[in-house]
Fold each of these.
Amino acid sequence: MQGRVYRRGTGWAFKVDLPRDPATGQRRQRQKGGFATRKAAEEGLTDLLGEIRTDVVAGTGTTKLEDWLNEWLAAVEPSLRPSTYSLYSTAVTSWITPRIGALKLAEVTPQVVQRLYTDLATSGGRSGNGLSPRSVRLAHQVLRQAFAKAVQWKLTANNPLASGIILPRMEPKEMKTLSAEDAKAFLDATADDLLGPLWCLLLTTGLRRGEALGLRWSDVDLADARLEVRQTVVAVKGTPLISEPKTKTGRRTVYLSGRTIEALKDQRARQKADRNLVGSAWEDSGLVFTTTTGGLLHPRNVLRDFQIALDKANLPKVRLHDLRHTVATLLLHEGAHPKVVQELLGHANVAITLNTYSHATPGLHREAADMLEGVLKL
């Protein structure tokens, strides 16, 4: 904050530039005149600056956490994916605000935050059960970002989440994959199903569910055996919506096998028959996988249909996302370079791929040892 003393009429005055209003971005000022001498105006300026700094440090301002979180959500909404904003909004309105929203920003100490996380972990769910570690960590992410911006905008002096907070441990999810034999059996058993082409695409490319559901015919080049991942389908409060890929590396080119090309040709023919059947009721979304009237497939319904398909093929229960794990595991077992697998899956870097699929890389280490032995024998 800066202030200045200046001559006004026959006396003296001072003016202080305050931080911009966080809600509107408008400039704010405090000023006072009527001082007989310059020295008196300077003393008045010094007193006011001290009061303002005390307000920030001691928390005597009136900004409540609930008000600030709502302002922060509104500010960041345009920069977030709809699904991310929905998660942040849930964390604020359902978990954080009901418990500590009435506190002033400066009253939110590390101890208050730690007690909040303990409460959420034990009874933060709708039925009184505890939230998952992932949800508690989401609440932490929201608070950490909101307080970082509050400090930047000088609404509070300290970020209570900067360090020292203990978060619940994340237990790694059990990864189940299909064997090569089971994967082939699954494709054979579901080849003629309505969603058979979708299962084939997922099991031969490693696409995420949302990426496959967001695929447009304009993104597919069957002649050149490739597709472009350019958008994805997400469910926001139960409604499927089109969104952009989560990361830059999510936008990528994926090459197609002969079996996948034939499956997509079948899908195009089936979709054309559906369009002719419903006529003017057809919704021209341009998507590869749609409802029988051309609309978005709901991600939740696809999960249900996948479990039905597994039963039909007499295969053990796995998650739809495990088809992606299956692709990566099979490729690494067959000696595919981890960098190629990383780019196929759209991981941000190869370290993520290697850490996620460390169970599938021992063969690569043995191969490296054998190669080195061969070199040294020369």
Amino acid sequence: MGEEANEAVRLLWGPPAKPSRGPKPALSLARIAAAGVEIADAEGLGAVSMQKVAGLLDFTKMSLYRYVPGKAELVALMVEAAVGEPPQAVDGPGWREQLAAWAKQLARSFTEHPWLLDATVGPRVMGPKELGWLERVVTALDGHGLSGSERMDAAVLLTGHVRGIAEQARAARPGGSPETELLALLGPLVHQHADRFPALAAAMASQDGRDQALDFGLERILDGLEVLITRRTG
């Protein structure tokens, strides 16, 4: 584990080390993370810098370094703050209902904080809250005939679907949706060339204007898991 990863682990998982010199600490990691989230929500992840966060908190950049070594660790703290606590595990609903609620709450997180799509790419250290999201999926599928790796793969599959829809939504214009914008752009062309694309023209003509890609894909993923679970458990 590299030095950067070690620092992220220390900040996310361990009690934060107190500054070894200087005046009594006037900041906290929570305040620093919240300031970073505020900037990213308003201007995007690229706008976040140690200087800008320090300015928002009315501190100097150098004083910020007494708490957070650099931007990579700052972003790790921001992700942990933005994802929040995972959905509560409950005994009542079945695994399917729990995973559906999980996916929809994750979708809301990406909608509220679109920059999370950029900040949660590739191998990286996760905090206890974010790792708790993975724990919820693995727990919901426990005892249903799936191996540990299959339960983790299910979490990856669900996350990938939610991320894909969130990416499309982020690219859409404010107030619009990927499906309606695609219909507006391609509908006239497909209609004009309906003899060349008859199946596509018929499908587009039957669209009801609802943006249901998230729910449709989610239900098909859960259907597939249900088939596998039924096969394993009889």
